[in-house]
Design brief:
This protein is mostly beta strands. It contains three helices and 31 strands.
């Protein structure tokens, strides 16, 4: 995973303002929160890693937000400046202005929001609006939202608005939705008496979009035995549905260590650039179960989705304008080499995805636990395409205007991704601890990135931490990725010295020992003082994919000085 800058550390300081002369103001103080974030790169050319040329010598993304909160009224705004955005962000991302402004009223379980807001229905199969700055995602809705929690155990939401796409809130497309969720234990006394939490939920989302011209150009076939005339063509226009409905139903059951979830989503015919303008319906079904006891836990999840790319603008591509989000059933790795080949959810063609996890803690002063105990975690991800007639290819114009390829519900297609990793957390002494991981990964690069073939990789990670005293801690990482595909083997090393609570010094190198013999070195110093955090670094960033929750953005290689500043109040 490519990381342009270190992640920000959130520090929240609440400032209460009250009017001494007003008794009500004393009882209900007004709080003000705000934050400033600036991520800056001074790019340098580097022919070895193939850096791009930019129009500016300074690239950066900046945010400044402020909010006022009280018992009955909240209000806030966010100013954004991306006139020369960081590498990897789309051209439409460029701009500046008020990206978010809202006012919210609250009284007796009723909440009304006007302006920009974020929300999610269920697991997000048909609606998830959120902000992920590392990916340049902000698909908020600008309009109105009503939340009602006036009845015990009943939660209702209704919303309508225009979806943000960078600096565009197109009025040619509107999003409407409603969600109802009920806590049955509030109504059925035997459930509450047995400590059972059981919820039922249902959602509806409507996208209304104006028509647009999508033409199909087909060459008329020439009959056998006849000379080929000058190429005649027929041109036809797709009939696009202006309104597309999506529905979601779900149930969630919890008792003690047992947790069960089932969810089903359905989407009407929605020809779009994602699905090659075909008229098949979309479906998603997910089952999830987990059980935990003191010392161990287990989880198993399965999901099948097909044609569930759902955007407010049907002809968009990339990571923008998504109304929904299909979660990736792949372990989210944080180690550099383990995250080198991250999985991106294949929402349009669909996928079968299975994920399992098992964790066990050996007790202290046992043969496996030792003096301080030992924790093991096993994670398995297995994702395949769905069984369909023919091979799915994005941009296949032969499918335009058709019902799409026929599929079998229980049939499996080609392997997209698999990951088996075993992790161990072990404290050796009071000062020294060790985390180790082995991982075997299969990554279908041709499906996920559009080029290459199957990458088979063995990955080993050792993370060591030595705590000298309450202030000084030294952390080190050694990682190795072995593969015969793509660019071959990689080695990664990192040293990090923390001087609490003020300073952290980090030096790392990611070295391709396979085909390029290239070093991606990085040096940084991070300082923290009260609500301020400043990071200054210099080095190279490898070209690759930055992913979060199955959504990925390609980030080109870069070299230069990096500055990241965060202030929260």
């Amino acid at each position: 995973m490519t990381r342009q800058l270190l992640a920000s550390v959130a520090v929240t300081v609440t400032m209460a303002a009250s009017i001494p002369a007003a008794t009500e103001a004393k009882e209900h103080p007004v709080t003000v929160h705000g934050a400033v974030q600036a991520d800056i790169l001074f790019p340098e050319e580097d022919a070895t890693i193939g850096t791009e040329k930019y129009d500016s010598k300074i690239l950066g993304n900046g945010y400044a937000s402020a909010g006022l909160y009280s018992k009955y009224v909240d209000a806030g705004l966010r100013l954004e400046y991306m006139q020369y955005p960081l590498p990897g962000f789309e051209r439409d991302f460029k701009g500046w202005g008020l990206g978010n402004v809202y006012a919210k009223g609250k009284f007796n379980g009723v909440e009304l929001t006007l302006g920009d807001f974020y929300d999610q229905f269920g697991s997000g199969f048909i609606l998830r609006t959120y902000e992920e700055r590392s990916l340049g995602i902000d698909n908020s809705l600008r309009g109105g939202r009503l939340k009602v929690d006036a009845l015990p155990g009943v939660h209702f939401t209704a919303l309508a608005g225009l979806q943000r796409r960078y600096w565009d809130w197109s009025d040619k497309s509107q999003v409407y939705g409603a969600d109802l969720e009920m806590d049955l234990q509030q109504w059925i006394k035997p459930l509450a008496s047995h400590n059972i939490i059981w919820t039922l939920g249902g959602s509806w989302v409507l996208r209304s979009q104006a028509d647009e011209t999508i033409q199909i150009v087909n060459e008329i076939p020439v009959q056998e035995g006849q000379p080929a005339p000058e190429p005649p063509y027929t041109v036809s226009k797709l009939g696009l549905p202006r309104q597309v409905n999506a529905f979601d139903v779900r149930t969630h059951f919890n008792k003690g260590g047992l947790d069960l979830l089932g969810e089903f989503a359905w989407k009407d015919r929605d020809p779009s650039l994602d699905n090659n303008y075909t008229y098949s319906r979309g479906t998603a079904v997910m089952l999830s179960g987990s059980y935990s006891r003191p010392g161990w836990s287990a989880q198993l999840q399965v999901k099948r989705s097909e044609n569930m790319a759902f955007r407010s603008q049907r002809s968009m591509q990339g990571v923008s304008a998504f109304i929904n989000n299909m979660p990736a059933f792949a372990y989210q790795h944080t180690y550099a080499l383990a995250a080198m080949y991250p999985y991106a959810t294949q929402a349009a063609p669909g996928e079968w995805a299975l994920q399992g996890a098992f964790a066990y803690s050996f007790k202290r002063r046992t043969a496996m636990g030792g003096r301080y105990g030992t924790k093991f975690r096993l994670n398995v991800s297995y994702i395949r395409g769905i069984d369909r007639e023919g091979t799915w290819k994005s941009g296949d114009t032969e499918l335009y205007g058709t019902d799409g390829q026929k599929t079998k519900f229980f049939g499996w297609g080609p392997l997209y991704y698999s990951d088996l990793n075993l992790q161990m957390d072990k404290r050796i002494t009071r000062q020294f601890s060790l985390n180790a991981m082995y991982m075997y990964q299969r990554y279908n690069q041709s499906v996920i990135e559009g080029h290459g073939g199957m990458v088979n990789a063995h990955i080993g990670v050792a993370e060591m931490k030595y705590k000298f005293d309450s202030r000084f801690t030294l952390r080190g990482e050694l990682q190795y990725l072995g593969t015969k595909q793509d660019k071959g083997d990689w080695v990664y090393g990192l040293l990090e010295l923390s001087v609490l609570p003020y300073v952290m010094i980090t030096v790392s190198d990611q070295w391709n020992t396979g085909t390029t013999d290239t070093h991606y070195y990085m040096f940084s110093v991070t300082g923290n003082y009260k609500a301020n955090r400043l990071m200054i670094g210099y080095g190279r960033t490898r070209a690759g994919y930055n992913c979060s929750g199955g959504v990925c953005r390609y980030v080109p290689a870069s070299r230069g000085f990096q500055i990241s500043y965060n202030y929260n109040f």
